[in-house]
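G., the chain you wanted modeled:
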Amino acid sequence: MTTPNLLPPPVRPKSWLQRHLVAVILLAGLILGGGFACALFSFIEYSFKTSDVYAEAMNRVRHSEKVTRETGAPITPGWLVWGSINVSTNSGNADISIPIAGPKGKGSVHAVASKTEGAWHFEALEVKLRDGQEQVDLLQPQDTPVQP
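Predicted structure as C-alpha cells:
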C-alpha cells in the first residue's frame, strides 16, 4: 500500500512576462499612443503645407524685400503651423500662422484669407519679426518684391 503524498506540489516561479505584465501593457500603450499622435500631427501638418493658401502666403513672404532683408534668404517655414482652413469646392476661409526662419532671423506669418470662385483673397497677410517687435504688412504696396 502506498501512502499519499501530503506535501503540496512545488511552486513554479513566475516568468518574466507574468511578473511584468502591467508594465509591458503600459509601455505598449504608450508606444501605440505616441505613434498615433505622431501620425495625426504629421497628417495635419501635411494638410496645412499642401494647401493653396499656405503656398501663396509663403510665396509672398519669400518675395518680400523687407522680410528677406530682416531674416536673410532662404526663408524656410518651420513646424507647428496652426490655425484653420475650411474649403468647400470653390469657396472657403483660412486663418493660419506659420513660423518662418532665415539665416539672420526668424518670425511668424499670420494669414487670413477667403476663397471665392476658386481663388484665394487675402484679408490680412502680416509677418511679425524680432519677437513681434516689428510687423510687415504684405498687402501694402510699399513693399517691393524681390526678383526670383
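The chain has a mean pLDDT of 87.

Shout if anything looks off.
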